[in-house]
Amino acid sequence: MSKIVAQARNELRAAILDAMGRAVAEGTLPAEPTPDFSIETPANREHGDYAANVAMVSARAFKMAPRKIAEIIFSQLVLDGTLFDRCEIAGPGFLNFYLGKRFYAAVLEDIEALGPKYGRSDYGKGEKVMVEFVSANPTGPMHMGNARGGALGDCLAAVLDAAGYEVWREFYINDAGNQIDKFALSLDLRYQQIYKGEDAVPMPEDCYHGGDIIERAQEFANEFGERYLSEEESARRKALVDFALPKNIAKMKADMEKYRIHYDQWFCESQLHNNGEVADTIAILKDKGLTYEQEGAVWYRATAFGAEKDEVLVRNNGNPTYFAADIAYHRNKFLTRGFDRCIDIWGADHHGHVARMKGAMDAIGLDGNKLDVVLMQLVKLVRNGELVRMSKRTGKAIQLSDLLDEVPVDAARFLFNMREANTQMEFDLDLAVQQDAQNPVYYVQYAHARICSIIKALAADGITKRPCTQDELMLLTAPEEVELISHMADYTSEIVAAAKDYDPARITRYVITLATLFHKFYNACRVKGEQESLTQARLSLCLAVNMVIENVLHMFKINAPEKM
């Protein structure tokens, strides 16, 4: 929470405890320890800015009706010198407290003093957190799920950073194992088809049949011609993979850069095989008696750690499975690189893998509770109210790169971050390109641009911001002003809540509400034409709103335009 909100809560708790201490001294309350009580923000602010349940939770210890306890506390309560104006007793004994003008002035002073740092906190205490997201298969182009996962992962990392965590973004490249073998086979067959014809070289059903494989094989043929037709199969396939895989990875990196996602590391699975970490991990499980052999394969007793079935670690051909490499990868995250917490963003179809992986961490002597998995539901693309599967430009399945060619990056990052990860969503292609208030990102950006326009218009009339006294800021008492400042006071707490819940969409919704409250304020309260002190106070309020909007948009790598 912001320091002003923290100050208000601390002052309130101290005032309540002081009042109870005076009541005990007078003998109106018994000398019993005060049970722990909460100070909450009521859903309806008409019931106060804060509510304390101290009378309710003390009833049993004090052997007294909650209402009577509340009345005694109320009679001893001193709010002078605090950020609060008054207290009321409600219902069976709730104490409702109302903030005074000094609180709202202090919020604006805090925003002005902190500027771009407003909203940041030390809640995370510098805990080292890795967010691994997208991690798309490098054997083909990225799709819509990657578009949503990219926005969610990057924005979650940003929220965690703002909440005081030391954050690391990572992309895991599956450049080893079965899918690379299948990639090699698919490229090989397409390469041979160029010279021998499709009828002479059939493609098995379980190969990769995408157009991207044909393109890569043709590029290889353009560069090397028929040279590799006479090579050993293994040498030919290695050459094809060595040629095509870097191109695919480079395309992924380019797409992510265009999406404004910058990873701290692109981590290759092959590294784990080459440096022996996969073998070491399998050996640890064997040494702990957690493996057995069956039909030539090595199995891990996953059911001993909460999974529904045991898993193969090493196939009967001697090759480790993807699961074995995945355990080694997470061991590398925790043990080798020392992350305190690891967050993976996976598609919802991986839900069965969550318990297996967390259990595997426990099995190798780490803490599975420090691995958190955010499961992300599917995305449906919609145009004119109808489901869209094919790109207008290519006539093929829509890829991430196609989306970013059609939709502004600002809109994509904002709209994909509108809903919690565990909910299905429709991405409206028409809405994403609209330049009106129906488009949420445009609506928020327009609020920012509108404030910039107000400031320029005032400057043209010779009115520029000067420092306001606290008394001047305390002139902001209109309901629309109070509501707007109250919302900005909650910004730091909202970031912390979004970090705790792994829900960056909470901040997207927050800034939409902020824009709405600003428009409401602007329609009700004139900035220019009032007394000079009130004009300056309202100018300070406008600048504070602009700063908070900028902080949200910049945190999510979305532009904050000054004119639209």
List keywords for this structure.
52% helix; 564 residues; alpha/beta; 21 helices; flat; 5-stranded parallel beta sheet
Annotate the secondary structure layout.
Layout: H1 3-26, E1 39-40, E2 50-52, H2 54-62, H3 66-76, E3 84-90, E4 94-99, H4 101-114, E5 128-132, H5 144-162, E6 166-173, H6 178-196, H7 211-224, H8 233-258, E7 265-268, H9 269-274, H10 277-287, E8 291-294, E9 297-300, E10 311-314, H11 322-336, E11 341-347, H12 351-363, E12 371-376, E13 379-383, E14 386-387, H13 400-406, H14 409-415, E15 425-428, H15 429-433, H16 440-460, H17 470-473, H18 479-489, H19 491-501, H20 505-524, H21 532-555
Parallel strand pairs: 5-6, 5-11, 6-7, 11-12, 13-15
Antiparallel strand pairs: 1-2, 2-4, 3-4, 8-9, 9-10, 13-14
Helix pairs in contact: 1-3, 1-4, 2-3, 5-19, 6-7, 6-8, 10-11, 16-20, 16-21, 18-20, 18-21, 19-20, 20-21
Strand line-up of the largest beta sheet: 7-6-5-11-12
The helix fraction, in percent, is: 40-55%
Given the structure, what is the number of helices? 21
Question: Structural class of the secondary structure composition?
Answer: alpha/beta
Rounded Rg: 30 Å
What shape does the CA trace take? flat
Total strands: 15
Low-confidence stretches: none
Beta percentage is 5-15%
Give the biggest sheet.
5 strands, parallel
Give the N-to-C terminal Cα separation.
33 Å
Query: What number is the mean pLDDT?
Result: 95
